[in-house]
Design brief:
It is a single chain. This protein is mainly α. The chain folds into two domains: about 1-225, Rhomboid-like (Rhomboid-like fold), CATH 1.20.1540; about 235-295. Helices cover about 70% and strands about 5% of the residues. The protein has 13 helices and four strands. The chain has helices at about 1-15, 20-40, 40-45, 55-60, 65-70, 75-100, 105-125, 135-150, 165-180, 185-210, 215-230, 250-275, 285-295, and strands at about 55, 130-135, 155-160, 160-165. Strands 1-2 form a two-stranded antiparallel sheet. The protein has a two-stranded antiparallel ribbon with strand order 3-4. A hairpin with a 3-residue loop joins strand 3 (about 155-160) and strand 4 (about 160-165). Helix 2 packs across helix 3 (about 40-45). The chain starts with a helix and ends with a helix.
């Protein structure tokens, strides 16, 4: 049975999108830490200090990897489950509208932004001093903000509330965390959450201006993936360019421009449909058009 379960997890990880892979990693890390804590709690108490993000500058210098590990580490079952559920809902929107290759860099950079804001708050504000940060909340809320900025009128159905546009969900989350910075419970976490939300908003704003600030992270991830998969480095080739005098073909140019214009019109129609009926109303063909447009 265990072999079958492991094979299913491997299959889901290899064939799934980036959101599926991030969720699998988070669940696996949570299960490991939960079992560790259940069977050897005294050892776990010491071990967790090397996984969670410390607020002490000296401790952070001795364990810099916690900048990454903390955003995959959850303490409570409900904390992990809620974060992964939100990530699944909003991550699909980001993956479909902004392209799946941007999901992991956005998750990591959003978590990093949350870590920076938490660290600054813990060292500059007396009511946040001490403790450590753990959990994917800042990274997940970065995805939420990016989805709301990309498609603010996308509608989701919430229990007891019915259909709600995600822009109002984002506003509510921002409002709650602003209030949280003035409370006595998880004050540092609220500051970190706001850091993740701010980065998601900033990212889409820059993307609309033509700058994708996740590109360096994408290149790094692709390089690591190529190394892991044993993909050989491409050899540089010297190209000999010969200029041949030919007449320009305005017809071909017009056809290219016309094709780009038609694709943009199709995307505009699809986005209008999402605003009215939600993403789930799209056909497979319309989803494919969005995916194709996101790669251009």
């Amino acid at each position: 049975m265990m072999t079958s379960i492991i094979d299913d997890i491997k299959r889901s990880f290899n064939s799934g999108n980036m959101i599926t892979r991030i969720i699998i990693v988070n669940v696996a890390v949570f299960m490991f830490l939960a079992l560790f804590n259940a069977f050897v709690p005294t050892v776990y108490a010491s071990f967790s200090n090397w996984v969670y993000l410390p607020s002490s500058p000296i401790k952070l210098l001795t364990r810099p990897w916690t900048i990454i590990t903390h955003m995959f580490s959850h303490v409570g079952m409900w904390h992990m489950a809620f974060n992964m559920l939100i990530l699944y809902w909003f991550g699909r929107i980001v993956g479909d509208l902004l392209n799946d290759r941007r999901v992991l860099p956005l998750y990591l950079l959003g978590g990093l932004a949350g870590a920076v804001v938490y660290f600054l708050a813990a060292n500059l504000l007396s009511d946040v001093a001490g403790g450590s940060a753990h959990g994917a909340s800042a990274a997940v809320l970065c995805i939420v903000a990016a989805a709301a900025m990309t498609s603010p009128d996308y509608t989701v159905r919430l229990l007891f509330l019915g259909d709600v546009k995600i822009k109002w969900i984002a506003v509510a989350v921002i409002f709650v965390n602003i209030l949280g910075t003035q409370g006595n419970v998880n004050t540092g976490g609220s500051w970190g959450h706001l850091g993740g939300l701010a980065f998601g908003i900033f990212y889409v704003w820059k993307l609309r201006k033509g700058t994708d600030i996740t590109e360096p992270m994408q290149d790094t991830i692709n390089w690591i993936a190529d190394k892991y998969n044993g993909v050989p480095k491409k050899k540089k080739t010297t190209l000999k360019v010969t200029h041949v005098a030919t007449k320009k073909s305005p017809i071909k140019k017009n056809r290219t421009s016309s094709a780009s214009l038609d694709l943009q019109k199709q995307v505009d129609v699809i986005l209008d449909k999402i605003k009215v009926k939600g993403y789930d109303s799209l056909t497979d063909e319309e989803k494919e058009i969005l995916f194709t447009a996101s790669k251009k």
